[in-house]
Amino acid sequence: MQITFYGFLQMIVGEMHVDFPLVESSNLATAWEQIIAVYPKLSQKELLIPPRLVVNNHFIAPEDWHKTSITNTDYLEVFTTVASG
Amino acid sequence: MGLQGWINLTDGTVELKKTKEEEIKKYLGGRALAAKVLYENVGVEVKPYDPENMLIFSTGAFSGTPWPSAARYTVTAKSPATGAYGYANSSGHFGPELHKAGFDLLVMQGKAAKPAYLLVEDDKITIHDASELWGKDTEETEKILTERYPGSKVAEIGVAGENLVRFAAVINDYGRAAARTGMGAVMGSKNLKAIVVKSTKKVEINPKFMETIKRVTPLVKDHPASVDYREWGTVLLLNFKNYTGDNPARNHQYGQMLINGEITAQSVKNYTIKNQGCFACSIRCARITEVKDGPFKTPVQEGPEYETSNALGANVWNHDTALLIHCNYLCNKLGIDTISAGGVIAFAMEAHEKGVFQDDKYNYNWGDSATIIGLLNDITNRVGVGDILANGVKEASEHWGKGSDFYAMQVKGVEIPRQEGRAWKSFGLAHATSNRGADHLYALPTIDGTGNKAVADRYLSECGPELMDPTNEAYNGTMTRFTEACNCLADALGICKFAFTETFAILPEDLAEGMTALGYEMNEEDILNVGRRVVNLERMYNIRHGMSRKDDTMPRRSLEEPLYVFKNPEDAGIIPIEEAEIAKVLTLNLDVMLDEYYEKGQWTAAGIPTAARLEQLGLGFCVKDLP
Description:
The complex is a heterodimer.
Chain A (H helix, E strand, L loop, with lengths): L1 E4 L1 H7 L3 E3 L6 E2 H11 L5 H4 L4 E4 L2 E3 L8 E2 L4 E5 L6
Parallel strand pairs in A: 1-7
Antiparallel strand pairs in A: 1-2, 3-6, 4-5, 4-7
Chain B lengths: L2 E6 L4 E6 L2 H7 L2 H12 L13 E5 L13 E6 L6 E6 L3 H7 L2 E7 L6 E6 L2 E6 L8 H11 L4 E4 L2 H4 L7 E3 L3 E3 L4 H7 L2 E6 L9 H15 L2 H9 L3 H6 L23 H5 L2 E5 L9 E6 L6 E5 L3 H6 L9 H14 L3 H16 L15 H13 L3 H5 L2 H9 L9 E2 L2 E2 L9 H9 L19 H7 L16 H18 L14 H10 L6 H21 L11 H5 L2 E4 L2 H4 L9 E5 L3 H11 L10 H6 L11
Parallel strand pairs in B: 1-6, 7-12
Antiparallel strand pairs in B: 1-2, 3-4, 3-6, 4-5, 7-8, 9-10, 9-12, 10-11, 13-14, 14-15, 16-17, 18-19
Helix pairs in contact in B: 2-19, 2-21, 7-20, 12-14, 17-19, 19-21, 19-24, 20-21
């Protein structure tokens, strides 16, 4: 799956664009867990707030992550809302 | 249109003028209108502490209305830090009260023969003796004056302003600061201790304007960033920045606290009683904190926010949240800018470590609480080394020499705020080019940081995809040109940037709609041109004072020393640093961004606006000042 990380999240991951192999039959919640396993500093435990996830140009609210199926052909964009100081 | 109070503190005369309609159309108000007054009245020959310098308090066209976060006011003067243009901006309730009292501007010139304060009531200004307040801290001053004038709002200086500390602040609402560029020192140089505002009037809202307010308010209130800042405050940023290299530490030797988890959003929350909002603000990012006991016992107070949490946290290598909260309280009480205070203390610690100066009073060890608290007091009272540091990092490094300019973290005489330009490139450019010296809020270029593609597509469509990469220099000049104009609009209207440019929840077209509803018809391009006009006017003020590209720079450390970002900053604190795993090595290529920034603004490669550009922006009167 193609992932684009923006802003601080890109800076934490170290790359803006990542090709991330998803386990089959993922929903967005489990996909995010897989991503966190590779990039643990993106977790809510570390950053306190959830990311904003956009799948194929559609924003998915956190409460809908588990209802949203996702495969390796989808395009995921990962944002955070906070930026400056 | 409101009033302008022109106050001559030397002879005690007050003249009231009406703001002209064309002034509002061309400048809106606030910082923008004050810039025009300063340009027209305070020339090169005037020094910052001369009576001829002006101290201008300004409110914006939206101030005091229910427009989301219309709480801010600006203080403008020739700055003792830059030697040229200066302003500071604050929030709370003072600005709206000043606008309710009928005033767009208070323009103070001259010097009172003895300490004085102003009492501003509905359409009326009187000058009063403040001898008994001189020498008192901001907290006591504000308490005395609000008890004397119940229901009033007060802005005052502390002892630092009286002693002309170059980064002295103007404090209002106890914990809100117009902090940057030494406006408190200019106020002190005029023997002006405080301004008390008490109004019985309300700002009248016409139905059309109210309609716009009702439409835009939820855009701000419900924006995810507003929700996050309401929950955590801006200290939330600490958790993000420490993994990115954008949490400047040990005077920018590092971009991270190498022991993680000690000053974080969670640790500040442990001392937080509640959150608080400014006038008309639904974001409510302020934290009300208290340290109940221990060596840093601190009464209930406002703050710290992110900038302070870094300046008096990671930058001075302080790991103790209670000490941070105590220092925040002290700075507000003494009346000094927390960003600059942290900057000068970090500079002193590094200079002492490198043997640049000797002083037996403190050990100057990184993070040492006695050194930090002692220096805050000594700077304020201009005692010992504090007297040198009270003039800021630039002058201290010139005084001590010995190569200390390499790590004197300032631009145009103003200490750098709490971003790391080597990590987040657009902020490197923003710090370098701000017309009030190093500053994150002058341009606040966050479009890349938030991945705001909608705004990028709409306003910056000529840029390539690299725009969205904060670690890439490409297109930052174009983005900064756009955001600096937008941020000027926030200051001109008296609104908070967190309700505008931090997220662009509200767009320039919404501001234009608001102005049109107030009777000043304008479209989005018209209002953006106000921002561009004022940036050029401020630039011309600095150019008149000899500034050019040579001044749009960053400290040598930022330009010549790579920044090592550690993969696991928490490990780097407990193992030898040379063994810590490095995630990336960052540098800053400022010149390439400057070239683009100048070109996009129609300035020469030397950073001078062209005559054609000035004429185009209605600044023909500045052409005579071109070099």
